Amino acid sequence: MRPKIILPQSFSRRGLAFEELVRRLLLIYFGYEGIFSKSYLRSASGRWTQLDSILIKRGRAYLLEVKFQKSPLSSMALLPKINFARQLGCSGLLLVTLKENKKNFSGNNLDGFVTNLLWEELYAPLSSNYSNCYLTRDVEPLERENSRFFSRNGNSLEWQADLLSAEGEFAVVPDDVERWLRRLPIMKGSSQLYVDKEGKYQFKTSDELAEGIKELIAIEEALSGFSATHPPLLADCGLALAESGAATPGQVHRQLIFRGRRVLPQAVSAALTDLKLMGLVEVNHCRQFMLTSIGREVFTLRKMDYLAWQRAFITWKPRSTIRASGLGYTRENLNAVREYFERIYLPFRPYLKNLFNLNKLRGMLDLSMYIENKCSQLLPKGRYLCLKGR
């Protein structure tokens, strides 16, 4: 059996996992070296542009663009990235897709600049080197016996469910399961992943985790999916849930529109996810968002308890870890904070990832300052402050 690549269920994370997989394959089997990975650079026009990676081969730099989609791409759709690659002085754009795209890049002065690598070309070395196994996005082989997965060093993880789907070279599992399978090589002994009565994934291991790993995993879990939403939108979404009791992202969006708040549906979904990661919101069995016990202390009908929000925020694992580090948390030293955690996570790469990037750090700082500012405005005789316009 040809090896199958384990990818997460949600489409956005599946795309990110595929990007990381492609990058590792290019580094391992195709002679490229990486100098940038999943970052933002400012173009000559002053606009920030996201890039997947910049790779070097034989002294030439290539901007990597990975598309996990079956529909063909046109040269017009790629034109912004092509222009950006030229502004950076790259020798070409390296495009990786699931399907053939070369016919779309003729003319327009693109011949020779865009190199379209197909997934089947990247998959060929895996098919030659591995068989009868699963591979994580980090190209770590896992064997499966019934409901238990095994890593090369003998660690195992039991998951009492079947794969969600298996199409071609890919096997799709829930996002939480994919993360734990990816971490399996650094776990100890046998572990179990199960779903509790509330529908939440719980992890249980027969051995103590290696020193420091448990803490780093907790931080990664808390930051995975954190979007650093604009603080006032977090407050508005929390108040909407306080009023409705439970609601889907679409229902919360309609509530905000009715109140005159102009916001995109995607921003509302991101805000609800951020509140969930901070422990203020949970998802019920109907897939509706609702306030937790801590969330109900923070968000009440038309009122906010900013002191309760501050208490909850400073005990949130990522924020409390930064406080415990003793590093000053200001706009001037965000890079120093990021580099500090890069060094801590470095021995455990690629199984654990430092998610303290500049965007998340900046967003956490903005939220901290927002809450502190609101707390300083509390009326002398009361601890609650009504939001303006409510």
Question: Please, could you describe this protein's structure?
Answer:
Helix content is 40%, strand content 23%. With 390 residues, it is of the alpha/beta class. The protein has 3 domains: 4-124, Trna Endonuclease, Chain: A, domain 1 (3-Layer(aba) Sandwich); 130-210, no CATH class; 231-386, Arc Repressor Mutant, subunit A (Orthogonal Bundle), CATH 1.10.10. The chain has a 9-stranded mixed β-sheet with strand order 11-12-1-7-8-9-10-13-14. Strands 2-3-4-5-6 form a 5-stranded mixed β-sheet, sandwiched between helices. A hairpin with a 2-residue loop joins strand 11 (165-167) and strand 12. Helix 6 packs across helix 7, helix 7 packs across helix 8 (265-277) and helix 10 runs antiparallel to helix 13. The chain starts with a strand and ends with a strand. Mean pLDDT is 85; it is low at 382-390.
How would you describe this structure in keywords?
disordered C terminus; globular; 23% strand; 40% helix; 390 residues; Trna Endonuclease, Chain: A, domain 1; Arc Repressor Mutant, subunit A; alpha/beta; nine-stranded mixed beta sheet
Question: Would you spell out the secondary-structure blueprint of this structure?
Answer:
Blueprint: E1 4-8, H1 11-29, E2 33-42, E3 48-57, E4 60-67, H2 75-87, E5 92-97, E6 114-118, H3 119-129, E7 134-135, E8 141-145, E9 148-150, E10 156-159, E11 165-167, E12 170-173, H4 175-183, E13 190-195, E14 201-205, H5 213-223, H6 231-244, H7 249-258, H8 265-277, E15 281-283, E16 289-291, H9 293-298, E17 299-300, E18 303-304, H10 306-315, H11 317-325, H12 334-345, H13 358-376, E19 385-386
Parallel strand pairs: 1-7, 1-12, 4-5, 5-6, 10-13
Antiparallel strand pairs: 2-3, 3-4, 7-8, 8-9, 9-10, 11-12, 13-14, 15-16, 17-18, 18-19
